[in-house]
Amino acid sequence: MNLHIILLSLIFLSKTQAQDGNQFPGGFRFGVATASYQVEGAWNEDGKGENIWDYLTHNNPGAIDDGFLTGKGENIWDYLTHNNPGAIDDGSNGDIACDSYHKTAEDVELLKDLDVDFYRFSISWSRILPSGHANYINREGVNYYNELIDTLIANDIRPLITMFHWDLPQPLQEIGGWPNPILADLFVDYAKVLFDEFGDRVLEWITFNEPYQICHQGYSEATKAPLYAQDGIGGYLCGHTLLLAHAKTYQLYNESYRETQQGRVGITVNAMWGEPASESEDDATAAENYIQFTFGWFFNPIYASEGDYPSVMRSQIDANSQAEGFQRSRLPSFTQEEIELLKGSSDFLGLNHYSSYECARLTTDETTPSFINDMGVSYTQPDTWEAGASFWLKVYPDGIRKLLNWIKTRYGNPEVMITENGFSYAGNEQDLQDCRRVNYYNVYLEAILAAIVEDECNVTAYTAWSFMDNYEWLRGYTQRFGLYYVDFTDDDRPRTPKMSSRVYSNIISTRAINWTYVPEGFTACDWSTE
Ligand SMILES: *[C@@H]1O[C@H](CO)[C@@H](O)[C@H](O)[C@H]1NC(C)=O
Ligand SMILES: *[C@@H]1O[C@H](CO)[C@@H](O)[C@H](O)[C@H]1NC(C)=O
Ligand SMILES: *[C@@H]1O[C@H](CO)[C@@H](O)[C@H](O)[C@H]1NC(C)=O
């Protein structure tokens, strides 16, 4: 073959590849994700400080489901009504978790075996800055992450680092946590340490994982540490600090690091798609408001051309606050300068997505502050959607395609990186032949591919949650999201590949979904029942 023909066939190949609706485009990247508290263990080793999950699980273990280990099962509503700190001492925790702190080499081998382009993990703030403050840096914590980063890079796997995935240092909780505005500056101090220590090798940063879960669930609804129930108040104060912490961190990177380190900084928000429960105008509005209150809350200030909180949040929370007799709105206001600082402060839109809701208008004459009343939406999932083990996780792949289109329309088609997506089995299920998880990945990736190829949504990466089974917050070890099975009753925490790990690996190497692919050592799934 002469050079001319080689060149022509190369052009032909890349064209057919680009036009093949069954294949992910060249340059599209695949990864897997975890978070520090959920996998690392080593909670008090090598100088690490205490964080809010160490504190919660040690002092209030009754809040954690641990059904399959102890026979006891508690749900979040039991917890809310029975909250009984310190009374129960057999709840599970992340003290050891997957013991990833001691398994860097083994875990990177598994990542290599998956053939991922990147590994998304989070840094434990308390491991780097034991008191939460940047006056003292724990070198042993820095060494651990240096080794992980270097081992990943040596194996051609890019680190995608989350700076904060829910494990706030306990001393910062004791000065109020995220509702205290000083936390924005303390976070920037922490981020600066990370850029200084790791930024020479890390090209992609996520400041926060899931602000809605951190703020609404942590400070309004009491379903995540620190389990505060300041409904309609704590969540908004937390969100305000967190957005400013993000924007200031972005500004710091943009002004002082981007030129030398050449990396990118983004933020990840979790969003359910909101489907109208009926054809009525009211329910269409309810669905839109659901997305604005849970997703727009954090992305409108960054991506909408006008910036600031979504106008529907501003108007409804202001009106409710006034009707309830408050002297000022429960939703704080940004200054004009802060609005400008936030606008455009993300190099990619990080999206975590698992499921959808059907939304209907909610009217109530309650006069106590409440996020749900502010939003004015009730949301449910139909029984006809297949259910995962998590009460909020039902399979509706159209939801992600619609959500990606919503982002494209509202925010001008920014680059989206899907930073989590996955399916849970109950913790006591030996789920190595995990056909329902394989089905989930296949149908969601098909929907994402359609959004890219047919709808021209600007999606550049996909991350499976999770690399391995891990500590599922208040659910303890009772729910498994992993591509690898972890035996938490074995001191050595052995990892065993599930069928989904092989199927995902095949998707990565072929860039395509193949329903008939049966990995070695597994049997074919019966898709007629799906
Ligand atoms: C980042 O810095 C560049 C160069 O200083 C500036 O032009 C740009 O506006 C900054 N971006 C944001 C979003 O602040
Ligand atoms: C995708 O996003 C990137 C980064 O914002 C942008 O440069 C590019 O133009 C976008 N692509 C499309 C097709 O809109
Ligand atoms: C899908 O997998 C089957 C079984 O391994 C294989 O025979 C077939 O060639 C694959 N299809 C594609 C398009 O790769």
TrEMBL record:
Name of the protein in its database record: Glycosyl hydrolase family 1
Pfam family, one: Glyco_hydro_1
Similarity comment: Belongs to the glycosyl hydrolase 1 family.
Assembly and oligomerization: Homodimer.
Gene Ontology molecular functions: beta-glucosidase activity
InterPro entries per UniProt: GH, GH_1_N_CS, Glyco_hydro_1
Signal peptide segment: 1-18
GO biological process: carbohydrate metabolic process
Domain of life (superkingdom): Eukaryota
Keyword annotations from UniProtKB, A to Z: Glycoprotein, Glycosidase, Hydrolase, Signal
